[in-house]
Every structure is written in structure tokens, then in C-alpha cells.
Amino acid sequence: MTHFNYLGRIYANELIVSFFQDQIRENTLAHAYIIEGAQGSGKLTLALSVCADMAQDQRQSELIVDLMCPDITIIAPEKDKKSIGINTVRWIKQDAYVIPGELEFKAYIIRESHLMTAQAQNALLKLLEEPPKNVYFFLLCDNSASLLATVRSRAPVVRMSLLSPEQMQYYLLNVSPDRESFKNLDRQSLSRIITMGGGSIGRTKEESSAVSADFEDVSKLLMLLADKKSANIYLHINDLPQKREDLLAFVESFMYALRDIAAMKQSKEESGLFGVPELLRPMAKRFALSVLSSCFDACVEATDSLLSNMNTTNVKIALAASLCRAVKS
Question: Which of 122, 204, 220, 223 lies deepest, with the highest CB count within 10 Å?
């Protein structure tokens, strides 16, 4: 079998990479694996890379990593559903016995496998006990403890490790396809992105997409709240992004800032999740803890409203009103 070393392109998690490379080389892959780890830690990338390195030629490998190979099926909760039900597993059981079209094997990658119902997991268990030849399963989850013990007993568990801040900085500046854009960030913004990413490459990249705009908007809103300028608070919040995802990102950043100001007041810490102590230090002197708590509660309420698909304009109006009440209490 020709090996294309897609696994070798995975940054960090060297022990897991080496483990799968040895399994492929020695043709000793198990028929199923549970891959656990935080959101954005690279679970899907790992599963696809294993499949790509099992392929017979470069074209097949490229189809796999580009999610265009019909023999690699990715399973996830259907839209508007919070779980993976038994009907999905029944379909997998039927499809698993269909001869592959492109590859010499088939693979089923179940994202968020911890969302499978108990009934679905029990149905899958029978397939894991007697799998068809050359069929592989990758169960991706945040924590394998959320799966039934009987399922865990049928598949080895591998855990994706989070990156240290030093590893993440090296990745962003030297390995990431977007490394040039990260090199253009100032030290404080880069530090903030890394901290908020929590060691997850996927999460860190999400945080980087809106860091500049968020920083300006958060800074301005904090100053307006400190000055208790109600009219300007309403105007500023009205000018925030109308797109739901962007508004959610801003509210999250603002919550990080509030949390760090509160931590600074209580422990005199000079750094935190928001990662901008020179902004937070003077704010810590201007806000009482009770005000910070009320502002944080207003943000939680706004987040819940946005996740419930409430009209974003109405959410912004309600958030502005709640923040104005908080600073004047």
C-alpha cells in the first residue's frame, strides 16, 4: 500500500499520529475507533487523514480530504435535530454491506457521536461486534464517557490534546495556511486570540476572524458604559453587526472583557481571557462588581435570545436597555 502521509501533516498530537501510522503500515487497524477531544481539536481532520493514508492512490486521497469520496460517509445530527437516532444507524447497517465504489474500503465518521440516542448506540453496537470486511468506524465526541460502556468496550479510545500557548503561536505564525495574516497582528491581539482559542486550532481560527472589529467595538462600549451615556450606548449597539453570528461573536467578546475586569478587581491580575490589560485596568476602577455582574447577565440574556432566533434588532434594543439600567443602578 502506498502511504501519502496526510497524518504527518497534523500539527502536534505526535503520539496519536505515530500510533495510526504504525497501524496502517502494519495493516493492524481496528475496525472502529473513538476519537475524543474538545471542539476544534482536529478530530475530523484526524479521521479523514487516516482514511486518506489508507487509500491506494493520490487522487483517492485528495477526494477523501476534500470530502468528495462516496465511500467516506460523515454522519451528524440532522438539521433542527439534537440527536442521532436509530433510523440513521439502520441506514448505516444497510449501506455498510454495499460494495465500495472508489476505494477498497468504506468508512463512517460519526461526528458528535455522544448525541446518539441510547437506542441508536445499541443498534450500532451490533454492527461493531460483527462489522463487514474492510469497513471502519470513527466515533468523534467531546468525551467518550458520554457513550455507553458497551460501545466504549468495542473500540479503542484516542484523545486529541489541546495545544499549549507556545505550540499554538508557533502553529499560527509558521504552519497555518493563514500564517501571513497572523504575522500582521500585533502582539496583544495574537495573545488574545490564542488565549480565547483555549488550545484548539479550530476555535482559535474562529476567534481570529473577528478579533479586530470586536476589539474596537468592545473598547468603545466599555467607555460609553463607564461614562453612563445612554443615548450613545443605544447608538453604538444599534451599529453593531446585524448578522446573527457576528452579533453573537461580539457579545461573547464583551462577556470575556467583563469577566476579566471583574477578575482584575478581585485579584489584581494583569492578564485574562480578553488579554488586553491596558484597556481593562482603568475600567476596573470605574465599574462596581455589581454593575459588571448585571452587564454580564444582560449579555447572557442576549445570547439566549439570539440562539432562540429572536430578531437581532430587538435583541440589540433589549441589550442596550439592560446595559443602561445596569450602569445607572
Answer: 204
B/e letters for 267-300, b = 16+ CB within 10 Å, e = fewer, are eeeebbebbbeebbeebbeebeeebbebbbebbe
What top-level class would CATH report for the domain 211-328? Answer: mainly alpha
Which one-letter amino acid corresponds to residue 142? D
Segments making up each domain of the chain, as ranges: 7-159, 165-208, 211-328
Contact indicator for 113, 147 with CB cutoff of 8 Å = yes
Query: Grid coordinates in use for 226?
Result: 463607564
Query: Is residue 148 classed exposed, middle or buried when 0-12, 13-18 and 19+ CB atoms within 10 A define those classes?
Result: middle
Please check whether residue 147 is in contact with residue 139, taking contact to mean a CB–CB distance below 8 angstroms: yes
DSSP state of 100: P
Burial of 147 (0-12, 13-18, 19+ CB in 10 A): buried
In terms of average pLDDT, the best of 104-118, 188-202, 272-286 is 104-118
- Look at 4-13, 29-38, 63-72, 205-214 and tell me which has the smallest mean pLDDT: 205-214
* H helix runs in 106-210, sequence order: 118-129, 149-152, 165-170, 179-183, 187-197, 201-208
HSE of 11, CA atoms in CB hemisphere, 13 A:
21
- Please, which pLDDT band fits residue 182 given cuts at 50, 70 and 90? confident
In 3D space, the residue among 148, 150, 153, 155 whose CA is nearest the CA of residue 109 turns out to be: 155
- For the domain spanning 7-159, the CATH number is 3.40.50.300
Whether 56 shows a pLDDT value over 90: the answer reads no
| pLDDT attached to residue 4 | 66
Residue 321 corresponds to which cell in the numbers above?
436597555
